Structure formats: structure tokens, C-alpha cells
## 1
Amino acid sequence: MDSIRIRGGKPLNGKIEISGAKNAALPLMVASLLTEETLTLSNLPHVADISTLISLLCQHGAAAVMDGQMTGSGSCSGRSLSITAAEITNTEAPYDIVRKMRAGALVMGPLLARVGRARVSLPGGCAIGTRPMNLHISGLEQMGAKIDIVGGYMEAIAPNGLKGAEIRFEPASVGATENLLMAACLAEGTTVLENAAREPEITDLVQLLRQMGADIEGDGTDRLVINGVRKLHGTQYRVMPDRIETGTYAIAAAITGGTIELTNTSADLIKSVIEVLIEAGAEVVETETGLIVSRTGPTLNGVDLMTLPYPGYPTDMQAQMMALMTIANGAAMITETIFENRFMHVPELARLGANITVHGHSALVRGVDQLVGAPVMATDLRASVSLVLAGLAATGETVINRVYHLDRGYERLEEKLAACGADIERITGS
Ligand code: EPZ
């Protein structure tokens, strides 16, 4: 298993080009199942989850071509992917894929809408929480599907097709909104999704579906109205920039006391993160292609924050901001409201000398003068990158083990950070 070695304590200065958003690209790719024509996506990130989803779509019968090269072997080059699901030959999404990548379960709505059946593995729990599927299931049932849980699989049929329905999500769920949105595009009649998630990745999906011929109103709000159409068609679409990668590298500048220009992105995508960064003492300047983040002052201030659905502070940026707060003056109370178990990074940050006490859903971070490098263990994607950030700020050597989590969602992380002066290398394991 690979690990990453960092010799920290150096300010990072330079430019980082932000990749396309993994969490936008995955549902956009799944939308290819809604049409027999070709969907071409550009600005795709090179991360492991994208390759995993390509294999899933291919085993449903889709053909995938990456920049002119067939991707059957899982190896891929280029950033443009054409997917053609001319025929759905298999409606099963197996446990082996869905347990590794929960976004695999998004095929359920599109498969039901297109061919009236789907057998999709339950994703199971994961490091950050139990993550149930009840909202996906009950929404599709309200649209006329019959779903049984058999042997760990959701066995769904819609013998009379899907019908429009009024569906309310509680709590708001990104994945359930995406699943139901896609299903509703080909359902008969009108579907209303209430308390729908408003994350920018949902807006990206609405825009793509509209380009494919869907009739959707209300994007950017918590009420989506979808009038079903008989068919969708192929199109070309550019994946939005990754707002979580943007925020992560913004914190890399602040935590190391350097200046990093982030390009191919937009400050608008991470307003809530920028607010905290500025309150903590960083400077942020918007540019035409993104933003410049710097911290020239010697110290940072502790800032309280609470994760919330968009436009609130993102849960996917909680661990990274906690890393920053470990070296801020005073204390910061960080409250996680989206997932019940998303403090797995706390004991690992403590190994670097951080002073953090967890009380239920809140973590009280008391800033220390200096973190000191140590071997640590990555537990999930965002926890892993918080350890990278802490390692960049720490003196001495930090070795982060189990970095396959990072490879799921950060493209060429070591290369991007090294280009800004980080002393970081991957140690290839057996
Ligand atoms: C998406 O997960 C993201 N994943 C997550 O990013 C992100 O943390 C999360 O949204 C919240 O922003 C992708 O986009 C691929 P949810 P998702 O359904 O859709 C509860 C990362 O690091 N819930 O919005 O699975 C759930 O338990 C990942 O990139 C139900 O109760 O999240 C949670 O408390 C991790 N029943 C809340 O809703 C359901 O049926 C929000 O989860 C579904 C969800």
C-alpha cells in the first residue's frame, strides 16, 4: 500500500490548476444511462472513482471512450469521456463496486426509468457514518417502483413505468436528489422534489439534463419541478471545477503561510470557506480564472464553524479547516451536523501534537504553537487530505499511510503541492 512522506514547515508559493469536480462528474456520467445516444463530458478529473464508475457503466452495457482510447482495461488517459449506453444489457450494480464507491447506487433511478428494473447493492456503512438509502428508496417507491431488499441488494421494478410524484426529502440529501432527479426526467407526468439539495453539483446535473432535453425548473433552489419527457438525447458538457479541491489548496496556502493562485475555478463556489479563511487571518483575492489565497501574518485566529447543507459550510471541508485551526491562536469549536462519525482525523491530528477534544458532534480545537511530524493513518478521503495539510505545516517528517483514499478524489496531489515548493513524495508500497 502506498504512503506519502512530507517534510513540512515550508511556506507554499505558486499556482495550482483545479481539476474538474469528482462529485459533479460521477452523477453526470451516470446520466449517460438515460439515453441511447452519446454523452461526452470534458474536464474530467483523473481520480480512481472515475475509473471505478466507468467499469460500472460498462458492465451495464455502455461503451466508454476516453479521448479516443477505449477504456475497457480501466486505464484511461485524457480528460474527455464519451459514454454511449445504446442498450442496457445488465441491470445489476454489484456489491464489489458500490461498497467502494457509494455514487454507484445512483444508477438505480436511471435504470428504473430507462428499462423498468434495477438490482443495486446497498452501499453499506463507511468511515464517516451509516449513510442509509431510505430517501432514495422511498422516493422511487412514491414514483411507482416496487423495491425489496434481498441479500444486501435493492431489487427494484417498475412494471408500469415511473410516474411523477411529490417527494419531500428529510434531511436534504445530495445523492437522493440526484437519483430522483434523473429518474423523474423520463417518468410520466410531473415530479416535485421538496427540500432538494442545492449543492452546485446538483445545478451542474440539472444543466446537463436540460441540455439532454429534460424539462426542469428551480435549479439552485430547494424545490425542483421536473416534467417527464419520453426521450433524452446525447450532448457535450464540461464538468464544473472541484470546489472541495479549491478549498483544500486554499487552506494549504493559509496553513503554511504562503501564497497560492488557484486557477480553472471560482471563488463563488467556496464563499462559506473563504469567510472562515478571512476571519482566521488569510487574504483572498478573486481573479478572472479563480482566486489567490495567502497568509502573510505570522499567526491565525481560531474560528468556530458548523457544517451545513449548501450554501452553508461544507462537511467535505470540515477536516481540512480543523487542520488549520490546530495552529490558530485561541480555540475553535467545529460542529459536524451532516454525518455522525466524521471526526476520524482527530486522533491522527493529535499524533502531530494537535489539542482537540470531541464532545458529541462538536470538536473543540485549542491551537498549539507548532505541529510536529509523525506517522499517521488515513481513514477517508477528506480526513486523509487534512493530514497532508497538517503534515505540510508540521516540522519534521510526516508519513501518511493508506493513501488510496486520497487517490479516490485528489488528482496528482503530490505533483500539485510539489510545484508550490512542498517536500512531498509518494512511497510505493507492495
Ligand atoms: C454526497 O454524498 C457527497 N458524495 C459527499 O462527499 C458529501 O459529503 C455529501 O454529499 C454531503 O455534501 C458525492 O457527491 C459522491 P447525502 P451523499 O445523501 O449524497 C442522510 C466526499 O468526501 N441520508 O447528501 O451520500 C445521510 O446519512 C464525499 O467527497 C439519509 O438519511 O450524501 C447524511 O446524514 C463524502 N437517507 C445526509 O443525509 C438517505 O437516503 C446527507 O447525505 C440519504 C442520505
## 2
Amino acid sequence: MACIFCQIAGGDVPSEIIYKDEEMVAFNDINPEAPVHILIVPKKHISSLNEAESNDAQLIGRLFLRAAKIAHDKRVDKGYRLVINVGREAGQTVDHLHIHLLGGRYLAWPPG
Ligand code: AMP
Ligand code: ZN
């Protein structure tokens, strides 16, 4: 069976979609850690950043540019954070590459 984010990208599992195009989807995190917590996800199944290849570079770049656009649209562009958890020890729980967009509250540094 396809992974949960492949199912969301394919429209087989419902989510609160923020943005969608032919190569990516962005939707609200089901367990938000901030007032704005959106996941930007490529439709292509890439298990983690460790599995990304050089021909994914432009796609990954566009995911980040879209995250910035969404941050602007959500009016958190004065201060937001983009996070990619890579591997279990960094808290990755869904094995499909995704960028977390967090904003709308003060974000401490360094993260835990
Ligand atoms: P990570 O721990 O970096 O792999 O992030 C996975 C994120 O996906 C977590 O923040 C979860 O809350 C979120 N998540 C898991 N399942 C869903 C879902 N069905 N819809 C929206 N967000 C989800
Ligand atoms: Zn997937």
C-alpha cells in the first residue's frame, strides 16, 4: 500500500489542502506544533532527503520556494522555520520527504 503522504497526494486520504500542483501538495499538519504548521510534500515518493538524487534538485528547490510563498500568504513571513527531519533519531516518522513550515509563534533556537 502507498505511504500516507502518497495517499494524501493522490487524493485517497483527505487533508486540509493549502496548495497543489502537478508535482507537489501542501496541507495542514494533523498534529500542529504552531499556529501555522503546514507540510510541503513532493508527489514523487522520496523516502527521505538521504534518498534524494541530483535530478531531484530542482524539485526540492521549488518545494522551498513554495514554502516561502505559503509563509507570505499566511502572513508569517516575518519569522518562520522550515524543517526537514531526516531519520528516526531526528524525529522522522513518515518516510516520505516533506518540509515542515512552522510559524505564528516565537520559535526558540536551537530546536530540541
Ligand atoms: P516527521 O515526524 O518529520 O516525519 O513529520 C510527519 C508529520 O506528519 C507529523 O508532524 C504528523 O503530525 C504529520 N502527519 C501524519 N499523518 C498525517 C495526516 N494524515 N495528515 C496530516 N499530517 C499528518
Ligand atoms: Zn510516499
